[in-house]
Structures are given as structure tokens and as C-alpha cells.
Amino acid sequence: MTSTPTSRAAARRPLVAGFVGILLLVTAGAALAQTEVTTPDTGGNVGWSPAIALDAAGNPVIAHRDRDQDDLRVLHCDDPVCGGTEPASVPDSAGRTGLAPRIALDPAGNPIVAYHTLASQDAPDLAEGVVVLHCGDPRCAGPATRTFLPATTSSAFALDLQIGADGHPILAWSGPDDGVAVVVDCDDPACSGDSPVVVTAEGAVGTVAMALTPQGNPVVVHGVAGDGTAAAQTVVVTCGDPGCTSAQRDALDIGPAVGAASVQDVVVTADGVPTILLATVDPSGIVVARCGDPGCGTASTTTLSATEDFAVVQGDMALADDGHPVVAFNQPSGELQVVDCADAGCGGSSTSTPSRGGPGHGLFAAIVTPPDGGLVVASYDQPDGDLVVVRCASTRCASPPQPAAAAVDVSQQRVPPSPDFGGAWAGGAGTHGAPASHVVIATVEGFADALSGAVLAQDGPLLLTPTASLDPAVAGEVDRVLGRSGTVYVLGGESAISTAVVDELSAAGYDVERLAGASRFETSTAIATAARERYGDTGEIALARAFGPEGNPTAAWADSVTGGGWAADTGTPVVLTTSDALHPAVAAWVDDDQPDVTHLLGGSAALSADFDELPGASRTAGDTRFDTARQIAAQLWGQAEEGPRTYLVLDATTPSGWAFGLPAAGLAADLDAPLLAVGDQVPPESAAAVEGCGEQVALIPAGPVDDAVMSALDGADSGACSG
């Protein structure tokens, strides 16, 4: 038996009256890249001034400094995210060592680390200069060759390290005492017996950075401080050979504030033109200078960050797989910032804050881009004294969306602010819709109450909060939507939403109505009763399983989550039951309600064959969760698989999938857009729903969906044209 959507759906006043705006806003923020944050080295005060390289397997190898012990540390991670890693080695602990380390790997995968060393109270006779350490194994745990390069300066200030075409290091460093910048083209991995070449011998030289041209020749960028008669400058030295025995020297003409900047890094794009990263002092910030030619006779600048308050801002830069720079730096607060540049000069960019958040958690950022895409950033966590590693699947490096925040985002797309809302509101598609009649709040810690409550998202947002306390963003959204008055439905008992949450909402002036029962079954019937009171008797209900099999956390909601939007669209209650037979409390409610049609969501593994004997039973199911979603779209929504149509797209294979799909139920209802289910690939059932030569199919991700999956699904509507 197949039913069609009730007439109530057609007559219902939509919350959203601007389809195009919603499509653009949700699409722009929903498909976020996966980001993982680890702290692979902790204890004491480690992680200071890290440098990072990747081994052949894509695992990070990080050189950093223990600031308390004045030691050099080398950490070789055992996986790409540094999730399970042996302790760091300490290959050098003499004097004050490991200052400003740089790291690269030789062809065998053994680290080459260059760093400064200074005398200390424990080692007063230690010579000061640059050390090149060539490790004898990938972890730098065994014997290593240590070469000391005292050349030209008694107090080396900054250095950089690249690997030349011969597999040997090329070094550049500067020192303020002698006012020189030097380059060393090493003849072996340890730089034994090599002599520096002075490339600048005038003025107090500041920080230095180096990159190699496509021909393998260094481009060295450094600062020269002003002396009262000459202004400070940023100087670019373009070498004519790997050893820089011939070179062109140019001063950047990019303004006095930038001219006095501290050089952070330089990259050379495929056309041989440098892009330079600078940290400015007044104002404090990060600036990208894009040279106009390989010799950098001219340059244009883009400011990525600036503040009038003094702050120490440092950064690093690498080239992404699109050939454009990606920049990591600390904000004035010390929080890590990543900028994915849209062009070689960062004229357009995407900005994210991917680390643990908070002041001081992203200092001394060092960045590297893996060959297969994405990026890895190592940084110093000042409050905790830890080494932090952030690995992003995309150079956008956006933080993984959190369900509670995503539900707020959906609400802000749908619902305009209350006329009584006194705060600032930047606007959005929601400003074109109708005000909400109420707000629904469910726990973010389990799917059951939110599944039953999706029906109430027809004319109000469904928000998620932790059990113990009201999420501040949720509290703010309730205020925005209702303006300190109106009804808030709280779903579930005190084990789902605590009394503290209810008290906070009541104290704020809201009429809080808790819809709850002794268990998730009674709670679902309480919600169903409230839905009947709000939307009238549609003559239909839906039944869904309340639990899944042990060890399969997604099975409990996989078949029913895509029905949440239909429930909101039609005002049809979704009631939870045990899988083998009607739960007694549900049986009593159904007997009292006497529905004409009882929709069974899912196959016999979700609801046994005995349910087919219920009066008016109509099962909507497929062979897989993906096929069930397609059948819900076709049978319950009446969605024809031809012509222009819209779908929300949900990853139904991750444990948190329900927490993104159910808050989107109201949006699905507003747009008449059923949910399609995907995983880490496009299942054939979902592809079949959008296929058709030249069809206009709009796809909106509901929560995090892999970019490649969205692209593949988007391309499926032209699949039938081939041949």
C-alpha cells in the first residue's frame, strides 16, 4: 500500500520563502572537511618552535624544542594524525640547543635537522652557531652525525633548510651581530666540510626564509633594519646556482610598515615567482607579498590579519595541490588560523580556526601539504606546554561541524529573528521566512527523542544541547527566535534534559513544556500527542525502531532518520517501538489514536514482519539504508525521479549522522526536499534517484558530507546522457 502526502503539507505556511538563498547558504557551510587534532608530545614545556616534514607514508616527522630542558626533540609519528606514537627522541641536549629547528628527510627517510645552539650555564664553553644533525635512523634515536657550522656570526638569529636536487641540504641563515646572511650548499647530508657563501654583508639582518626555484636555486628573503639614515627593508636574493655564488639582490618596494616586517616564509610557485609571508609590527599582523617577477623587482600585498594592539604574530606557508599558498599563523590571541589562498597572492581566501581553540593554543605554526591533498600543521600550545598536530583532509581545514552548532545554523537559515529580539542580527535567508511558533530542544547525546520530535520542526527549529547544561549557542538561538517569550518543548525526562536546562529556560521567561515519559517509548507517545494537538489528526502515524543491534550504532536510526523531514512536512507523528512487537505503551496509544495508515519505516530487521498485520500497515523499505531513503522519498514524499527536484544529502554511515539529519527535518519540509543517504561513496540507490540526462537536481548537504561524494552525486544527473 502506498500513501501520498496529506493536503496539510500543501496548505502549511512555510518557514522559508527564499529557496535560492537557503541553497547557497547551507551549501557554503555544510560540506566541511574532516579535521583531526592530536597532542603527540606532552609533559613539561615541549613543542616550542616546531618544524615538520612528512615521511614516504605521509606520517609527520617533527623537530621541536623542550624549552624547560633546552633540548632538541624529534618525533616520528606512526600514523598520519600522530594518534599513536612512540616517545620523542632527544638527539641533542648540550647547552641551549635546538633553537629555531628546521627539518627535512634524506632519500632514506632519515631526518636532517638544522638548528642554532648557544652556550649555557651547564655548558659555558659551547661554541655558538648552526648545527646540522643527520640522523642514522627514521626516529633519530640512534647514532647521528653532528656538524657544527660557526661561520661568520657569533649569534645566529634565524635559519631555513631545503633539500637540493642532489638530495643534500641547502641552508640559509642570518645573524644580527655581524649583519650577514649566508647560504650553504652542502656536499653531503651532514654538511661536513662545507663553507658558507655570504649573500648579504651589510646592515643588521633579521629573520630569513628560503625556497628553491624550479631549477633548484635558492631564493633567500631577509630583513635589514633601518639605521636612522636608511629605512628598514625586506630584501630578496635570487641565486643563480644552488650555492648562490652569483645572485641578484632586490629590496621590496611595498611600504614602510611592511618593509620593516619580519620575514616568516617564502614559496616559489610553478612560474618561478616568489610569494613571501611577512609579520608586521605596527599594526601587528600577517601580510602576503606576491612578487611581480622572479627577481621580485615589484610586489603587491594582501593583509590576512591585523590589529592595532601589539602582538607577536608568526606564521608559515606551503603550496597546496592547486599551486596556491596555504598559510598557518597565530592570531594575536595565540589561536591557530589557517588561510587557504584562492590565488598566488592570497587575493581571495578561505579562513578557518582548526585547533583546540582559545588563547595561546596555536603558536609557532609550521605547515606542510601532503601529496594527496590537505595539510598538516604543528604548533605550540602555550597554556599546556604541548606539541599540537592538526591534520586536515582539505586545505580549507575547517573544524569538524558539531551537531549542536549545526542545528543552530539550520535554524538561522530558516527562521527570522523575533520582533522582540534585541540583539544584532546579520541577516540571512531566514529573514525572508515566517517567525517560529515554538522551539524544540532535544539531547545531543542520543537520537531517540529527536527522531520523535522531528515532527514538531514543521513550524519551529529543532535544537540539540547536552543533557547537563544548556549550550550557550542554543540559548542564544532561542532568544533570537522567540525573543524571551513563547513555548519551548523540551523532549525527554531528566536523564535526557536536566532540570538545570529547564530552570534556565524558565528563568529567561519561556513557557517550558516537557514532553516525556518513563522511557523513550512513552516520550515518543507524549510527543505524538503534542503533534496531534498542534497539527490535527492526519490519519497517519509512522513507527520506527527504538534500538539497534549491539555493535552497530547507526542501525537504530538509519532507516528512520530520512523520514524525519517527511514527518515535519506532513505533521505525522513518529512513534518508537521495540523491533519484535509493539511496545505496550505504544500499543495503548495506537489503540486510542486509531490511525488509518501506519507507516513502517525500514525492513523486517528494523520492524518484524508481525507489524505488517497491523490495521492500515504500509511498509516503506529497501534492501539497504540508502534504498530505504530513496523509497521514503518516492513513496511518502511522492517525489518523482524526473524533472527539477531537490534533495538534502546525509551521511548515514557515521554515528553522529542522526544529529545532523534530524535538525534538518524542518529545512527538508520547507524546501519539499527529501533526504538521500550516502556514505564515503555514492551508493547506486542514491545515484539512481538523481540520474537523468540534463535533469536539474539541487543537492544540499545536511551536515558533513565528503566533497568527493557530493561532486560524484552532483554529476550523476548527467550519467544517462553518455553513450
Describe the secondary-structure layout.
Elements: H1 7-11, H2 19-30, E1 35-41, E2 48-54, E3 60-66, E4 71-76, E5 89-92, E6 96-105, E7 111-118, E8 129-135, E9 144-149, E10 158-163, E11 169-175, E12 180-185, E13 197-200, E14 205-212, E15 218-224, E16 233-239, E17 247-251, H3 256-259, E18 262-268, E19 274-281, E20 284-291, E21 299-307, E22 315-319, E23 325-330, E24 336-341, E25 349-352, E26 363-368, E27 375-381, E28 386-392, H4 403-414, E29 438-443, H5 448-453, E30 462-465, H6 472-482, E31 487-491, H7 499-507, E32 511-515, H8 520-535, E33 540-545, H9 555-558, H10 564-570, E34 574-577, H11 584-593, E35 597-601, E36 617-620, H12 625-636, E37 645-651, H13 657-661, H14 665-671, E38 675-678, H15 684-690, E39 697-701, H16 707-715
Parallel strand pairs: 29-30, 29-31, 31-32, 33-34, 33-35, 35-36, 37-38, 37-39
Antiparallel strand pairs: 1-28, 2-3, 3-4, 4-5, 6-7, 7-8, 8-9, 10-11, 11-12, 12-13, 14-15, 15-16, 16-17, 18-19, 19-20, 20-21, 22-23, 23-24, 24-25, 26-27, 27-28
Helix pairs in contact: 2-4, 10-14, 12-15
